Structures are given as C-alpha cells and as structure tokens.
Amino acid sequence: MSSNSLDQGYDPQRIEDSWYEFWEKEHLFAAGTEDGCNNYSIVIPPPNVTGVLHMGHALNITLQDILCRYKRLQGENVLWVPGTDHAGIATQNVVEKKLAAEGRDRHDLGRDKFVEEVWEWREEYGSAIINQLKKIGASCDWSRERFTMDEGLSKAVKKVFVQLYEEGLIYRGDYIINWCPRCHTALADLEVEYEELEGNLYHIKYPFEGSSDGLIVATTRPETMLGDTAVAVNPDDERYTDLKFEEIILPLMNRKIPIIRDAYVETEFGTGALKVTPAHDPNDFEIGTRHKLPNIKVIGDDGKMTAAAGRFEGLDRFECRKAVLKALEEEGLLIKIESNPHNVGHCYRCKTVVEPNLSKQWFVSVKPLAKKAIEAVESGKTKIIPEIWTANYYDWMYNIRDWCISRQIWWGHRIPAWTCEDCGEVIVTMEDPDKCPACSSEKLARETDVLDTWFSSALWPFSTMGWPENTDLLKQYYPTSVLITGFDILFFWVARMMMMGIHFMDEVPFDDVYIHALVRDEEGKKMSKSKGNVIDPLKVIDEYGTDAFRYTLTAFAAQGRDIKMSEQRVEGYRHFVNKLWNVARFAMMHFGDSKEFSFSKENLELSDRWILSRLNHVAATVKDALDTYRFNDAASALYKFVWHELCDWYVEISKPTLYGKKGEERQKATMGVLWQVLRDTLVLLHPIIPFVTEELWHKLPDTEGSIMKASIFHDGIDLSENGRDMAAENDMKLVTDIISGIRNIRGEMNIAPSMVLNVIIQAEDEMVRDTAKIHEDIIMEIGRLESFTIEAPGDQPTASATAIVEGVSVFVSLEGIIDFAEEIKRLEKELGKIAGEIMPLAKKLNNDGFLGKAPADVVEKVKEKHQTMIEKQEILGATIERIKSLEKS
RNA sequence: GGGCGGGUAGCUCAGUUGGGAGAGCAUCGGCCUUACAAGCCGAGGGUCACAGGUUCAAGCCCUGUUCCGCCUACCA
C-alpha cells in the first residue's frame, strides 16, 4: 500500500478487513485516559448472544460509531463499551432446540448440566454477532467487552437484588401474571404481544338453584368457567336490584358460587353479568381480591387442565374449550355464539398464546423508582431526542405497574433467595447462607427462578464499568454521554436503566438518549423472517462495501422517520465512494513524487479561495449537524460538497493550472490547496466512511499514521464565519453563472461540446465587468470558448443565442447555424418562466400591508429580486423582438 | 377506546425560530472532454392530502376532514 497511484475503481473488499485489523493492532479504539480532555462515553445496546446482525443493529452501530470517531477526531477521550446480552428465554429456546435435534431434553440433563451446555453453546456461537459488528466498522474498545452473565455483572445483579429487597422494593407474592405454557415461564406485561384474532363470544346460562332461570354470562374463553368462583353484576344495575338469589350454580361443575356486586362490571355489555375467574384473568383477580373469593386454578403451567377441572383434567386448554362447549350444548346452556374478534396475547419469544395465570412470583415495586426517572427527564438532566419521545416516556412511566422479574427457566441470574424448610424464613443475601438465621436449620432451599434478562441489562451503563467497585472507569466515564437505540426498547430497557442508574448511582445513566428510526423494507414493512423481506446487512456489505452501506444508513437517518431500505439506494452511495476514490486518484496523479504541500495566500486563484471557503463552510455544517444528532444533514452536506463543488467545479477549473499552463508557482499553490482540501475532506468523511478514508489517507503524501489521529477537526479548520471568503464566493457565483448560461445554450441548441464558441457578455455594472475580465481564462476554458468579449450594454450582437444571468447578458454567437424560430421559442419559454416569477414579487410590492409590516431587510430583498427580474424580462423581450425583425429581413 | 407520526416531483425522501419549493434515483436530449460511462453536460416534471382560519406573508402556526403507519388499553 505504498504506491502513490490508485486503481481505477474502488474495491472495498480488498482493504476493509485489513484496516480493521490495523486499527485494533494499533489500539486506536482503546478508551482514552488523558487529563484535561472531555470524556465521552457510550455503552452499546448489547445484542443477544443468539443474534445475527440485522438492519437495526447496522443502523444503531453505525450511528454510535460515527459519534465515537467524530469525538476522537475532536481530541476527546472516548469510551465505547461493547458486549452481549445473555437473553434468557431466547437463548434457552435455541439450546433446547439444538438438544431436541439431538434427541435430548433439558430435563434429562438436569439444571446444572443444561446450564453448562448453554455456556458451551455461547463459547462456540456467541462471538458471531461480535464479528459482525466489526464488519460494520464498530470502533468499540474490545478490551472492555462484557457479557451480562460475566462474574462482575452477576455480582452487580446480586447486589442490586439484595439491596432492593432490603429496601422493600422487591417482594414476592401470588399474583396473576402472563404465563407462556411453551417456555414454561412467567412473562412481564411488556413481553406480551397482542394480536387481533378471530374469536367467538360464548353466551352461557348459569342457572339459579332449583330453577330453569338463570343469569347469562358471556366469555371468550369458556374453559376458564371451570375455575369460576363468582358471578358479578353492577350494583347499580336495576335489572338485578331485586334479585332474590344470592347464589348460582356453576354448570358442569355443579358448584354453588355467590352472586356478587362490583362496579367494575359494565351494564351495557352482554346481559350485564360477568363470570369471575380470579385464577385466570387479571381483572377477575382484582375483583376476587376485593370480595375475598377463592382462587381455583384449572389450567396448569403446562397448558393442560388440572385436577380442579374435574372430568376435564388432563385436556389441553384448547381441547378443553371444545369439550366444555360440547357439554354445555348438551345441557342446553350454550345460548348463543357471537363472532368476536379480539386481542389475544402472545409470548414475544415463541408466539404461543399466553395464559393469565396465578402464581408465586417476584416483583419490583417500580413506582418510587419511576418517580425519580420522570423527574430526571423533566428537569432536563437527561434529554430525549427527538423530543417527541418524551411524551411516550412520561406516559409509560406515569402508568407503570409492578415489574414481574422472576422467570421459571434455567438460563439466567439465579435469584439469591433461600427458604428455610423448617421455619419458612426467607433469606435474601449476597453470600450463599449455610444455615437459617432464624432457626439455625441447615435445610435451606434455594429459589429456582432466575431473573428477567432486562433486570441485568438495566444495570448495563454502570455494571459494565465495574460497579459495585468504585472503579476509575466509573469515575471518568459515568454518566455516559449518550445512549443510542431504537424506540422499540424505550420501555424495556431505557426506562429501566434510568430507574436503576438513578437509584444506585445517584446519577442519571446518560445525558442524552437518541432514539433512531426503524429500518423497514422497500414497502415500509417491518422486516421479519416470516415475511421473507429481510435484507441481510452482511450481503449488502459484501456486494457494495461497508462504507457505501454506512453512508446509505446515515443519509437516511433523518429524525422521526423510518428508513426504507433497498439495495438500489446503497448502489447510489457506492457511486459516491467511488467518486471520492477517483478525485483522490486524480489528485495523486498530479502530486507525483511531491512530499510537501504549502501555499501562500498571494498565489491563490479565485477557485482556490472559493474551495477553501466552501471547505470551512461544510466543516462547520458537519460539526453542527453531528453535535445535534442530525446525521443525515452531515451526510448530505458532505455529499454535495465533494461531488458538486470539489469535483464538478474546483477540479475542472484547476486542471489547466495543475497541468502547468499557468506557471510553476500557481501550479504549486493549487496543488497545495487541492492537497489540503482533500486531506480535510477525508477527515470530515471519516466518521461516516472509515475504511476508504483510512486507505486514501495512507495513499495521500505528507500524512502520518492513522486518519483516526488527525487533528484538523479541533485545530485545523476555522469553523467560524472568519473561515469564509465571501468575496470569493460571490465572484465565483458570477463565473459559474456565466458558464452555466453558456452550457445551457449548448444543451438546448444541441451544440456539440467539441465546438468552440464565441461569446459576448454585456453588463451594466463595471465591477461585474471587471470581475468577469479577471476570470475570463476560467470562463473560456470551462465554457470552451474561442473568444470572450466583455462590453457595457449596447447593441446586441446578431445571430446569437442569449442567456440572461444575474446582471449579465450572455450572447453565444451562432453565425450561420442559428435557427431563429427555435431560438425565439426557447427565449419565449424563458420569458414565460420569468413572468411567473415576477408575479408574486409584484403582488407583494403592491401590497401596503407588506411594505408596512414586513421587516425592512425582507422588503429590500424582494425589491432587489423584482428589479433584476424586470431587467431580465426587458432584455429578453428586446432580444426576441430583434430576432423577429432579423428573421423577417 | 386513548395517544403519536406521516401524506411535498413518477419513486424514496430533505425542508431547524413563517419571508425566493429542494436532493437522490428514474425519465428525456447530447457527449468515450487526458480522475471517474459507477462518468460528464443539459432538460422536463410539484394546487406541498382536502377544507377553513390566523398573518402583510403559510409546506411550516391553529381548527376540522380524510387516508396510511405505529404505539398503547382490563369491555368479559
């Protein structure tokens, strides 16, 4: 990689892996420890160990990487902590599937052996996702990689659990929870996904004792009736105020159950009578608690009916539904079946229909924690960006319910609680106890449940930095600067980190939370395996290169809108990367063996001053955009600068100079400018496209080491207005306007580019004429002219095509080849356009309200604009008249 | 049921205190001009969803309507 010439096209495959190795070898991702610098830190949203890289990760990682690389270029200490999440249920499912394929079962193995198997699985496959993050270019400090089941993080989990228990914020009790009969575990409310399913509403008659009359109740889940312990009506329901029965017969079970009155019951629904099954419905459970009803659990944890279901024992819950309906029908108690589509909860991991079920679980009482987490956002200690998400955050936090944290699986952090088998004492402690503190019995049974995976992820921002030890890392880098994540885990994760961070660190876990878009498919649908519309990021990288892919994600990462991904778009940005490659190639050809690049301001041409001014402008734009998480603005500003300013104008204008046509001194100066602009542009682009910029940095003469160590961002570019050269920008505009006018005529009149032209311009303003004169060489070269004449307005040249640009009439002589009719048509079209532009301006100027109330500078601008348009119109009109008269003669 | 976001060129989308409607892709015409045909030059194309309102001035602010998407909720 030492040659100073570049291949004709950019080939990402050839260089990406080796640059990544280079960065790692040089420890360029290692967290800085310099004194006196800003400290910037991010913790990665840990992907599941079971995971494979998807578009969401790709976007998430790219944005974090951009910020980290950007901050490093600004000379800050940067810590980006990587790691993975043990993903309890998901991982257990994967390993169980693997066992099943081998004809084995976790119950055959037993708990310890099974957990060993999972660790082995993790050793073997857990690094896959990490390697994929590296493919994206993630500049994490890999020496600090963490796993939620690591020893240190496990200690943090224990400590948090014990403390919360001692503070009374963790409790255990019998409550209705969401039960997944397939995963065989409780789920938190958040872990249930609702989906509208076709279903029926069954109307069932519960008879009064010794009567053929009764109450008709309606239910979507008839099998739960076996566990009914009451029928409820609204106390204000007039139909039932005089009811003479206190009890009713539960059909099929022939059990007498009370008729109770509870305001929860809606009088309008059905017959106004509600069957109450406290063990299998959250609302019924609350009613049951209020009325001290017994709980009868008829559906077991395996989804089969229990002994309490009488003759239905052992049936699967859905089989039982059929059997119950058949039995009711036979007894003439099934009154009506109505179609009733309704929401049914599914396990977010395995999509099985969840069953509300009564069981003993551990809960976190989150209200007090949520309160502080709300305050932190209200006070602005933590800022959520885009701000629109704060409303969502508040809404959830205000309505938060206790968090069920116990899971009946084997893979995860085992709850540090023991029960004394002799006296029933519950012991919660960091160190495994050997005897009961109450009765000294040694018969202690350890809690078999593990904790919700999100319990450990909630500690991630500080547990990864070594908490509960008070490490240097924590002191330097906590709280983190920003958390970057998708809105889908705002509640699961962000909110919980906020609560835990504030409670245990006494400080918010992050200054900013940046919520990014979801990546969808071309049609805006969520990508999912079952839909088959998943685009594999690794395949995209393979085909187009990581840089092109990253640029695409960045350019489309506008705040508040989802990203629709298609390969065609990536292709467009591959062209951009290639364009960059080629402009570097062009520059390198001219640099040859030169080793030094310097220029003095006196030797600069207009285009040199202009491009330096534009460079400063784009640098300021990029800084401003990245500082405010407007990634797409940074990407598009750089795109425009590189392609449409640097390549389209500066390089083209500089060619004669670079080829030595204007003397050695000028040539050296322009080379110096080109070198500096290229160098600085690479640095500005590096956060977005790290690979190609590193490659080009090394090819570029007079650069040292890695581009990651470049300092131009903090001491090389003047980002203030002083960095601009407005005189150069204005003059350049005149030059490019004139050239565009000429090109327009070429295009419209189908004049071959090879044909050189004779052009006369007329301008009223002497300064304009002078400026044009000074830069006539540029105009002649780029406009491909044979002659260029500058005049004050006077007689218009005959047989020419005309273009009117700001304050200048451009006449392209077309002696002998002009088609007058065509030219008149063209000019009239132009005249029509101008008339369209004048109209709204004139309207404003005729409006006293506007003149009186609009700010003076706005009025002035409109007046000026109007004036130039009128002038343009007059010249065009005169030109048309003249050609018409020529045509006649 | 409640809440939020969106509707701008054929397509995908920008448009930051209200003050001249933009980009990329696609389309059409012309070019192998010594970095790049993954390129260069030029052109066409929009009642900014609809209806009102505020204002001298509205894509942008307010009200209503409509369509799409998402989140959330205990009507059995």
What does this structure look like?
With 889 residues, the chain is of the alpha/beta class. Helices cover 45% and strands 17% of the residues. It contains 29 helices and 31 strands. The strands form eleven sheets. The protein has a four-stranded antiparallel β-sheet with strand order 6-5-16-18. A four-stranded mixed β-sheet has the order 11-12-10-13, covered by helices on one side. A four-stranded mixed β-sheet has the order 29-28-31-30, with helices on both faces. β30 and β31 form a beta hairpin. The radius of gyration is 37 Å and the shape is elongated. The chain starts with 11 loop residues before the first helix and ends with a helix. The mean pLDDT is 89. It binds one RNA strand of 76 nucleotides through β9, β13, α8, α11 and α18.
Topology:
Blueprint: H1 12-25, E1 39-43, H2 55-73, E2 77-81, E3 83-84, H3 88-101, H4 106-109, H5 111-125, H6 128-136, E4 146-147, H7 151-166, E5 170-180, E6 185-187, E7 192-197, E8 200-207, E9 214-219, E10 230-233, E11 247-250, E12 255-261, E13 273-276, H8 282-291, H9 317-330, E14 334-339, E15 342-347, E16 355-364, H10 367-378, E17 383-385, H11 388-398, E18 403-404, E19 406-407, E20 417-420, E21 426-428, E22 444-446, E23 450-451, H12 453-457, H13 460-463, H14 472-477, E24 480-486, H15 490-505, E25 510-516, E26 519-520, H16 537-544, H17 546-555, E27 563-564, H18 567-591, H19 606-627, H20 631-658, H21 664-685, H22 690-699, H23 712-715, H24 726-749, E28 757-763, H25 766-774, H26 776-783, E29 785-791, E30 800-805, E31 808-813, H27 820-845, H28 848-853, H29 856-888
Parallel strand pairs: 1-2, 3-4, 10-12, 17-25, 24-25, 26-27, 28-29
Antiparallel strand pairs: 5-6, 5-16, 7-15, 8-9, 8-14, 10-13, 11-12, 16-18, 19-23, 20-21, 20-22, 28-31, 30-31
Helix pairs in contact: 1-22, 10-11, 10-15, 16-17, 17-18, 18-20, 18-21, 19-20, 19-21, 19-24, 20-21, 21-22, 24-26, 27-29
The protein binds one RNA strand of 76 nucleotides through strand 9, strand 13, helix 8, helix 11 and helix 18.
